[in-house]
Write a structure and sequence with these properties.
This protein is α+β, with helices and mostly antiparallel strands and 168 residues long. It has 2 helices and 5 strands. The chain has one domain (19-160).
Length: 168
Amino acid sequence: MNGIGGGVAGRLTKDGYSDRQSGQMTVELAVLVPVVIVVALIVVNLMEFVEACAAFDRLSLDEVIAEGVSPPGEQSVAASVVAVEAALRAALGREGSCDVEVRAESVSAGEGERLLSVAPLLTRYTCTLVYRPWPRELRLPGITYSAPFALRHERTLVIDRYRPGVVV
């Protein structure tokens, strides 16, 4: 042995670098990959949520106007809520990751106020999109990613159920 590379410092390659530095890159990659995967999952879920919200905003207004004003069958608020909810689920088409909740309430004046309205039978529909991120929990060496229980997005529309086309 001539003393160059025979000690603790390791063997020198043609470039003048030690073999130990190539191992350092492997360790850095092993530490960095789980972080990159988690960040990528967060970005993908965020993009899917934004896409679902954009579709939901458009579809919820359309379905409330179409189904809320004149639901098939019984002409009641409960029947219209069921019809709007079913139509929204079918139109959205994201059974695995999204759920839809619809509620309706009568719009009236508060206590002590008078409501002088041309349409006294107004109904407020509140449509809620509940998005569940994928995966619910991801465990990698050194990192645990737990998605929030669910992300919620609401859209509200007030209509007169007894006069088609009247949107407030």
